Amino acid sequence: MAGTGGVTAGYGAQVPYGAERAGWPRLDGIAYGGDYNPEQWPEEVWTEDVALMREAGVNLVSLGIFSWVKLEPEPGKFEFGWLDRIIDLLHEGGIAVDLATPTAAPPAWFLKAHPDIRPVTRDGKVLGGASRQTYCPHAPEYIAACNRIAEQLAARYSDHPAVVLWHIHNEYGCHVAECYCPASVTAFQEWAQARYRTLDALNEAWGTAFWGQTITAWDEIDAPREAPADVNHAQRLDFARFSSASMLELFKAQRDIVKAHNPAIPVTTNFMAVLNKPMDLWSWAREVDLVSDDHYTTAGSPVRHIELSMAADLCRSLAGGAPWLLMEHSTGAVNWQPRNVAKLPGEMIRNSLAHLARGADGIMYFQWRASRAGTEKYHSAMVPHAGTDSRIWRDVVELGRQLRELRPVRGARVEADTAVLFDWESWWALELDSRPSVDVRFLDMQFAYYEQLWRAHVTADFAHQSMDLSRYRLVVVPQSYVLRAEEAANLRRYVEGGGTLVVSYFSGIVDENDAVHLGGYPGALRDVLGVRVDEFLPLAAGQSVAVHSAADTGGSEAEVAGSGTVWSEPVELRGAEAVLTYADGPAAGHPAVTRHQLGEGQAWYVSTRLDPATLREILRRAAADAGVEFDTQTPDTLESVRRVSADGSVHPFTLDHTAG
């Protein structure tokens, strides 16, 4: 794996991996269906399944995701008869196939023959195999076996008229995203050497002068496993990059194998968007023909519908605004949360339409028929244990009917004039140990800002700080802890060119090596924001501080009084003006929120975690600067989004979430 990954940069280009890059699968209408696991059922059930799929309006199923041992019951012995029969049966029924490579579930015989492929955790535990995802991404035996079965499947089915999409693996990075075995250590050494070329460059990047960690030979590099004290932060950040890149190499190898047989069939792998911390999905999105996502709501959460919208908007953004596929969600309860609360009446259809409203051209579930055995037997399905005499089945049929009526929406895009920055490297680095406060968490910050935009009916894309942001009037930065100098310069150009930027605390603090930008905080963004901070003043657990309108606002705005938690800073004005001031606490008397006129635009800085109402008001003011409509009159239980077709046709969606 030497040389995989390299320096993460240049996300803005989103360059396709090849000129032959396909797009949406050959389907008539919006994709509708789910994971189908016929090997769990007697063959006499298959005919019934196809008839029920037709009744529900299903036109696409994912097949073979965990079928490795069924396809290869012995080393090198392949049995495709059962798969031939079910693919032909589906085709006769007018149902297309998203055919998977089954490499997320190595057979028991394979694990027995190759025990060294079992992944090793950071604390040295070797993981067992009576599950799934039991593999090391650097084990040569595993890599060879994956490529072999991908070749067999592609050679046999690439020209089958039912196969319209290739589904590589399943949920890369789920369960096991890093491995600390000897093969992984060797691969990491090779990756580091390819990245840095010289030991001097590596030692400089990793700051190894601290604690006497200087590396004098490449084979001295170890994986950043559990140690007596905290482990080198830059090394851990690089190991996260290396691990994401390694998984991506596995995907690309299988992708290239199946594409060689029929380049016209698009290839995807199912992301997990906001759930998948270990995989840098900006990098992954460049390598798929079609972005697809698995999303499950948080059972019982009163804001689960907003979390859903955030995931959908992120997925659409990974797709560059193109239609994307919801590969998995649930008809009711899942099985893996502590309390698996069922969806309320109407919630399943509403969830599905919310994804559609935000750019999905396909709605699929895990799974078609609920399992009788196994760890996911209590996971809901399109055909539940109760069968067709059930509320879930009636909703499945009704949703199929509605999706057929919504066919004209297919291909339409969601237009947004606001962007929220989302950076996986900041997520990784921010949540390492020895930070100023454990209460600063990446997704918490992202959601806090996204929620207030959502409640004000502002449709937002997500973007990376290296991208061209000029198309957006308003750019919100909830948490960009890692910021390269060139990315800071990109944000400066955006503001100077007339954009409005809102930045939250602990952003712009370190470079790509987790080394602090010197000269005062917020580091690389000091000049853009027109402020300087010489010390962080994080707050104790449960502590809050009061904020009020600053005197120099001149009374032109309504009074804002609120509170902050988690964080505070003694902000010094270096060109900015104060909007809110700390009334008490360790930063009393200092600005809490500032606004800086820079060129043709404005840059706002929020130095504490504001209460929701106050944050919403600050975002309203920033939106007014940007000329972005910020609707505080329409009830925030209504979700309003629209998609626009290439011919200018507008498809509005309004969803009422008052029912929960």
Q: Tags for this entry?
A:
single chain, 660 residues, alpha/beta, TIM Barrel, Rossmann fold, 2 domains, 10-stranded mixed sheet, 9-stranded parallel sheet, globular, disordered N terminus
How large is the radius of gyration?
A: 26 Å
The CATH class label of the largest domain is Alpha Beta
Structural classification: alpha/beta
Supply the number of helical segments: 17
Brief overview:
This protein has 660 residues and is α/β, with parallel strands linked by helices. The protein is 31% helix and 17% strand.
Describe this structure in words.
The protein has 660 residues and is α/β, with parallel strands linked by helices. It folds into two domains: 26-412, TIM Barrel, CATH 3.20.20; 418-626, 3-Layer(aba) Sandwich (Rossmann fold), CATH 3.40.50. The strands form four sheets. It has a ten-stranded mixed sheet, with helices on both faces. Strands 5-4-3-2-1-9-8-7-6 form a nine-stranded parallel sheet. The protein has a three-stranded antiparallel sheet with strand order 10-23-24, with helices on one face. Helix 6 (182-196) crosses helix 7 and helix 14 (442-455) packs across helix 17 (612-626). The chain is globular, with a radius of gyration of 26 Å. The two termini are 48 Å apart. The model is unreliable at 1-9 and 552-558 (pLDDT under 50).
